[in-house]
Design a protein that fits this description.
Elements (H helix, E strand, L loop, with lengths): L7 H11 L1 H21 L33 H37 L1 H15 L3 H12 L3 H9 L4 H14 L3 H8 L4 H9 L4 H24 L11 H11 L6 H28 L1 H6 L1
Helix pairs in contact: 1-12, 2-3, 2-12, 3-4, 3-6, 3-7, 3-10, 3-12, 5-6, 10-11, 10-12, 11-12
Length: 287
């Protein structure tokens, strides 16, 4: 009895789960995500803002990462920072990815004047460094988490747009698209029902890599005083506060925020590479 052929997504899943390091990183990301959900629901680290007289208490059994200048537990603030980091990565991706996919699909599928206009637009956007655009928008919108969402989400879609455009240029002339045209499929159906699933691996890989960009950008903005509001348990604000504490020998707030960010960003880097190896047809055919 012949075994049924394995689909592309099933084959990609098998390739991915053979990579043990990638699976470990996926577990780490799931743990971070679970902590973010639990803190958002108010079930974990709810006392992060409680002050005490133990100012700059060193790490101990009572406070594993010590306390800050107000006596607040650094570990609880670090755990609350996970909620902000994950939310920024998720929301900015949900803003930027639809913009990049929609404009890239229009440019690659229709070509002509539509392609020229969109290429001119994203080339103009790309001529300005992303960080400068984000800082400028944050100045206009004001400080706050919503401003971070908007400034990052609406300025970082260009690379995905360029990739999707190139893939649509290749796929729109293939036989399955011509067959859909012969069956009477309209432009939107051919774009988003027939072509888009065949380039979805690019979107999935970009979604993973965008988390890294969102998390690191928020840390930079908060460090520069342009991110979330003061007093919020953001890793960037914790690192910004720690720069004045190091002269006093208070290192634990910097260590807690840095290690939390390091493991999450590293896990996403490895996960992105593993997804690229499992989903990219060019890399799949080489192995």
């Amino acid at each position: 009895m012949e075994t049924p052929p394995v689909g592309l997504w099933e084959e990609a899943a098998q390739r991915f789960f053979k990579n043990k390091l990638a699976v470990v990183c996926l577990v780490i990301i799931c743990i971070y995500s679970a902590l973010a959900i639990l803190t958002w629901l108010g079930l974990v680290a709810t006392d992060y803002s409680v002050t005490s007289a133990d100012s700059y208490a060193p790490p101990s059994k009572l406070h594993l990462f010590g306390t800050d200048i107000f006596g607040r537990d650094v570990l609880l603030r670090t755990i609350q920072g996970i909620r902000i980091a994950i939310s920024i990565g998720l929301v900015t991706s949900l803003i930027a990815i639809p913009i990049g996919v929609f404009l890239g699909a229009l440019a690659g599928y229709f070509g002509g004047r539509v392609d020229e206009l969109i290429v001119w637009f994203y080339t103009t956007m790309d001529s300005i460094p992303d960080l400068l655009k984000i800082i400028a928008l944050t100045f206009v919108l004001g400080r706050g988490l919503m401003s971070v969402y908007i400034s990052i989400g609406f300025t970082t879609w260009v690379n995905l747009c360029r990739l999707v455009r190139g893939e649509f240029l290749k796929h729109k002339t293939r036989d399955y698209v011509h067959a859909a045209s012969a069956l009477g499929a309209g432009h939107l159906r051919k774009m988003f029902v027939h072509i888009l699933p065949n380039v979805f691996h690019i979107i999935l890989i970009n979604f993973s890599s965008r988390f890294i960009l969102g998390i690191k950008t928020e840390v930079v903005l908060s460090y520069l005083g342009l991110g979330v509001e003061p007093g919020q348990p953001s890793w960037g604000i914790m690192i910004d506060d720690a720069k004045l504490e190091l002269a006093r020998g208070v290192w634990w707030q910097l260590a807690a925020a840095t290690f939390a960010m390091f493991f999450l960003v590293l896990a996403f880097y490895i996960l992105t590479d593993a997804l690229r190896e499992a989903l990219d047809p060019k890399l799949r055919n080489k192995t």
